[in-house]
Backbone:
């Protein structure tokens, strides 16, 4: 079966393949013909007007790979129109960022050379594929059960029913080589090439790496103070007050400054003032056919009351149950801890002193396993809640995961600090938890996928050699390799890891000043391993326009509020401070509470007073708005005048 | 001197006068001629294209009134164009609120009968007058010192230099009669006619009255619980815990629900989704001529660093000094209080028991006087800080006034409650402060202005009769009367009063349950006196589009957070609760603090979870946005197609 022009490496020059579509290998021929026609059809007929071709393998044997693999490309003209559709912001001749319009194309900087990056082209193609809508078809040809209705996204329907297995953007080998060299291959003392990362992977990922870098640098002062603290005051448990005060200030300033950095980055990338497009329903969203109250179109509707029922009657009890389980495990850990201490006290030698650390290590591993299992359960549950929009799905998922991870990781530390009030155990427990989880994370996140990927690569190479002999077929080989790669599931897990590290540092690091040092070291390797996994372990992800780190800003801010409370309480518990109030605990507590309230109030005032967007960017944004208002006025005036002159004639 | 057509009562039919302009009586003739020409000139020549005429008095004597009074009106066509300029939202045929455009005028509901209310017309005329800009004039003709530059608002310049004394909208006697009847003249058990108020006075004022009504109704349950509490537990100081818990919940729910009510009102009035227009500099703003970085136009620029210096080196120390003074006065009050108690204890009879209340009453009067004096000082200082925008001026003024008023009114109560821990004195002090300030407020706010106004009216009537004999000249008389009326300075003082009442009720009412009853009674009379003063004491104000109560929402929310802290502390201090922890204060304090933290967290989560805008209005807003996006797409598609067909020919 051959549909239209085929792209083998001999005629790849017909267009640059940007996106790969993989359909199930038993897809019916009529469905394929229909889909390709719809993709190729002109826009005024409701098509996507893109270029698409099947990948054909020269030799065919029994172990042949899936034949239904297609590559998609586009003409420049179509891409420019698409750039306007998706509301892309590009640099204007005067240096400001403006929404691209085809009519003004010549006024944009560098319009004639490499105007759209690969990532942008791929994002535009994804948008056009996603918004390819059914017309009057009642179902997908050849699949009477794959119902369609006017306006339904064809790609989402095929995806939700498993006919479309995946679609992903292709790597650009040249660019990738250049990027990975400047990013992590040369040993250097320079910052990450954020603009290049954004150019290749899009704004969402570049913001994550920007945040990672910022967070690491922000920790350096704390680490620098921590080392002498650790070296000279290690056995002097009383002297952590100063460090707690430093923590307090640091965790507040840190987030306020990041907001401004993030705004500066997002402005430079043109996502700060970009308007959110109308959000499509998720691929997995289902419901009875009804009318969308906003668009007035027919589409599946799922009553919000049913979803609320599922959330409050199933999800919330499940989360509570998991929290209970986590507490139970914590209690088991404490039992183990006491058992180990007892053995050590009975017979103090090297073997038993090592045994002291065993319960903490086991507990740390169990915590990681529970987090992982819960993560899957949360994803399943949130999917089952049937949210209409991806953003709402994400918010509910993040909330579920955050609450559990927070309790699971920090409950034991809170218990040790405030119920047992045992600062020695707190220090030991914190150190073990932190180090174990860092090691586990690096293994799970980078080395394991890398090892799996290498095995897979070898297999694919072998198969390719068998299939094609010694012919040089770079495109076919690349598509085969990348189809088998793991899919990068977004920045969720990466942010989550940073969130927990931030928690360890801001909540309790005053009793274990080395925590900041450990986190800095972890994050330096994290940059390299994350960079490596993005470039070589995972499929290239579609670029995701982002104007800030979204819900994570809120999560980090909540953590920093909790950090104020915790640090104040730790200060109140310190023998150093207690010495000032020898006779009355009451007075000490009242003073600590009063100071805490003042600090919290100050934090809120600070967040309110410091503008989230730096002044010069505010001016630029205001200027843009003013210009567009003026242009609108002029156009309206012109229209009116024309209407007036028509009236007179 | 007579410029153009004169409007006396004989030819008033030439146009409906809507706005009155009063120039200084020694204004030079050439300046007047120039101004009137600019107002009358066509829009394409940069004029306002409005109708304007001088008011002429038939008889002239020595005691003649200011001759430079002008009335302004407009053609319907001009008003409709202006409605589009100011971005007015009106009801569309399908019941939604949409931005008015002249092109679609026929699709709006009731377009052909009374489409624009008087208040809207006057608002449009104000906008057109305010945006009447200087062209190439270097100064106002006849006033070489009144410098102008291209783009400067002519009216603002004239106003800041005192040539334009005032401009204000005229009352509409028919509408006013109808409104005041349905508002406060008939004794009835119905709500205020908010839609009519909005129709006559605009959205800003209607929202204030809506808030006043909502606040009063919200207090009714508290008042109903308060009466039996007061009657049966008056001498039982221990039993306020339940009431404090009720206060806690009430003050949180109250504000969340109001946000939704306010959004509903604002949506119905078309201000919810209305975009803010580009803000003009304040009339009093001055600085060296420079370039506005946003518009690129030449205009006065005042460096932000200088303003910061003025704020931090003068305003902040001044506010701190005032706060110190307020504390000093408080200490004097406590001395007086002890002196009175001593006298009573030495010789307890009726005279000395009355004497017990004297210090509180004196203190309450002093507080009111200090608030008033500080108010003037704050206005002067904020003006001197030379803010460029009215909104920034208002924010700084509100902040200054709120901080001082809060401390001045509540510091003594906090001191009595938490330092002296004397609940009997707290109750007595609260009652005296509340009652005295209510009485003073009603007198200052309504009766005094009314009495002054009546005296002034009589004088004007006498003068009019002397001037015109028995001729019936309703317009001339009306303008003369209204020119002399006081100007309503906005809702600031009204909101401030409600803010302080909210403070009395939410902070300490658990120890004096009658507070809510007093506030309800006060607010019922407040509705009547405020309504009366708006209709008969003050000049009609220009309508002010408002989508919410603005900075006051924040102020009330801050107060409700403070209320949580205060009520928790009062609960912790109550003997009832203390009885549960007979041996250890420490445990009690820790539990109270923990509960307080949970409540505060719960409050923030609640504010986050409850949507500020009700669901059905969200859907309507999304629908509007979707429609406008679709319309834009269609238009762009059409433009492209036309461009395409041109290319082909």
Residues:
């Amino acid at each position: 079966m051959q549909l239209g022009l085929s792209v083998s490496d001999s005629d790849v020059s017909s267009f640059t393949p940007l996106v790969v579509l993989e359909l199930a290998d038993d897809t019916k021929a009529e469905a394929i013909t229909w889909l390709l026609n719809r993709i190729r059809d002109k826009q005024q007929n409701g098509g996507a007007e893109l270029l698409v071709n099947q990948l054909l393998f020269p030799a065919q044997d029994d172990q042949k790979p899936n034949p239904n693999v297609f590559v998609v490309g586009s003409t420049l003209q179509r891409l420019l129109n698409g750039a306007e559709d998706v509301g892309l912001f590009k640099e204007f001749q005067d240096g400001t960022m403006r929404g691209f319009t085809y009519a003004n194309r010549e006024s944009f900087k560098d319009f004639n050379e490499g105007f759209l990056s690969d990532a942008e082209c791929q994002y535009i193609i994804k948008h056009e594929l996603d918004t390819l809508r059914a017309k009057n078809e009642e179902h997908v040809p050849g699949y009477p059960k794959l119902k369609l209705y006017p306006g339904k996204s064809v790609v989402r329907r095929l995806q939700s029913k498993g006919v479309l297995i995946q679609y992903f953007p292709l790597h650009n080998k040249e660019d990738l080589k250049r990027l990975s060299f400047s990013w992590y291959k040369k040993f250097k003392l320079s910052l990450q090439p954020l603009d290049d990362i954004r150019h290749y992977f899009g704004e969402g990922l570049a913001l994550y790496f920007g945040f990672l870098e910022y967070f690491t640098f922000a920790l350096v002062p704390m680490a620098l103070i921590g080392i002498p603290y650790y070296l000279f005051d290690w056995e002097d448990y009383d002297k952590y007050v100063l460090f707690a005060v430093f923590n307090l200030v640091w965790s507040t300033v840190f987030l306020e400054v990041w907001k401004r950095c993030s705004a500066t980055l997002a402005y430079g990338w043109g996502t700060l003032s970009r308007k959110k497009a109308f959000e499509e329903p998720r691929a997995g969203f289902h419901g009875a056919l009804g009318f969308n109250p906003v668009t007035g179109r027919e589409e599946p509707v799922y009553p919000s009351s049913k979803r609320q029922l599922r959330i409050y009657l199933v999800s919330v009890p499940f989360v509570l149950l998991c929290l209970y389980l986590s507490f139970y495990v914590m209690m088991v850990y404490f039992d183990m801890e006491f058992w180990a201490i007892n053995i050590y006290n009975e017979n103090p030698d090297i073997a038993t002193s090592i045994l002291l650390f065993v319960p903490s290590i086991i507990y740390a591993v169990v915590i990681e396993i529970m987090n992982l299992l819960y993560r899957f359960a949360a994803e399943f549950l949130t999917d089952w809640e049937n949210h209409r929009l991806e953003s709402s799905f994400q918010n509910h998922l993040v909330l579920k995961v955050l609450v559990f991870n927070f309790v699971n990781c920090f409950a034991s530390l809170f218990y040790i600090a405030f119920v047992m009030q045992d600062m020695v155990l707190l220090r030991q427990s914190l150190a073990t938890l932190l180090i174990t989880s860092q090691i586990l994370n690096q293994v799970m996140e980078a080395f394991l996928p890398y090892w799996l990927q290498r095995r897979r690569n070898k297999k694919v190479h072998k198969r390719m050699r068998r299939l094609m002999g010694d012919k040089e077929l770079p495109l076919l080989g690349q598509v085969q390799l990348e189809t088998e790669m793991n899919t990068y599931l977004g920045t969720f897990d990466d942010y989550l890891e940073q969130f927990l590290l931030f928690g360890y540092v801001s909540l309790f690091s005053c009793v274990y000043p080395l925590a900041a040092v450990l986190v800095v070291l972890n994050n330096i390797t994290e940059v390299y391993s994350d960079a490596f996994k993005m470039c070589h372990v995972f499929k290239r992800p579609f670029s995701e326009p982002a104007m800030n780190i979204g819900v994570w800003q809120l999560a980090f801010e909540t953590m920093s509020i909790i950090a104020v409370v915790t640090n104040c309480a730790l200060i109140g518990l310190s023998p150093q401070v207690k010495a000032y109030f020898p006779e009355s605990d009451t007075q000490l507590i009242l003073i600590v509470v009063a100071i805490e309230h003042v600090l919290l109030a100050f934090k809120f005032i600070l967040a309110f007073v410091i503008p989230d967007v730096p002044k010069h960017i505010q001016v630029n944004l205001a200027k843009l708005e003013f210009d567009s208002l003026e242009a609108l006025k002029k156009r309206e005036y012109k229209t009116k005048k024309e209407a007036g002159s028509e009236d007179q004639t």
Q: What stands out?
A: Residues 92 and 108 of chain A are 4 Å apart (CA to CA). Residues 17-170 of chain A form one domain. Chain A has a mean pLDDT of 84. The beta strands of chain A are 19-23, 51-54, 69-73, 89-91, 97-99, 139-140, 143-147, 164-169, 288-291, 298-301.
